[in-house]
Amino acid sequence: MMKTSINEFIKNNLKVTNFAKNSDPLMK
After folding, report:
1. Ranges of the chain with pLDDT below 50
2. How far is CA 18 from CA 2, 3, 4, 10, in A?
């Protein structure tokens, strides 16, 4: 159960990070 939560958290973080990089390349 905890493992699944951590995996979901990591997936969500990667999605948000990739979205931010793709939409705002100059913000880096």
Report:
1. none
2. 24, 23, 21, 12
